[in-house]
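Much of what follows relies on a compact textual record of a protein's fold. A record is reproduced here so that you can trace the correspondence yourselves:

. . .
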Amino acid sequence: MAKQKKMDIIYEDKELLVVNKPSGLLTIATDKNESKTLYHQAREYVKKQNPRNKIFIVHRLDKDTSGLVIFAKNEKLKLAWQKDWEKYAVGREYIAIVEGKLTPKEGTIKSYLKETKTFYVYSSHDKKGKLAITNYAVLASNKDYSLVKINILTGRKNQIRVHMSDVGHPIVGDKKYGSTKKNYRELFLHANRLEIIHPFTNKKMIFETPMPKRFKKVLDRYFEDKK
């Protein structure tokens, strides 16, 4: 059995653990996969410190999305955050590389998301769906690719992936939502910055991660002025 990579811990204190999740790793277990998850790694990590330690999921990222994930070390904190995550998560920033030259360079995408029985999420104007709002700004672009900074005002399943596909610029590597670039298998979506409010102290905490290597490789190859 291949040895699991060591967790990339961004921050840790007595109440929380912040980890940079790699692309391709589930945040939590599914019926088909119970052990190869970020949660399992985090649980094993805290139990090595003390067998009585516990860890709790606060939010999650898609399997193929990389970036910041927060775990609470006590259930009280977890429940407080989850009660109104959109209130406390005041800044959720992602970077993505999408197909084509995205115009205009700044914009807001808004729709109501629904999900089929086969777990495919799609946009609708039917208000019975879940409201999703995505802000974006192009950082660099050429005729083939655009590097985009994305801020979400709502945290819906597959929200960014669906919205980028909606405007005709699917995320590179996202075969599920229309990517046609065959030379890239990984999803080029990364949660790189998170601003949260501690529900008990009202202190703002800001966490950031560097740009993943897979992004740098594309930028070095296709964007001569963007390193």
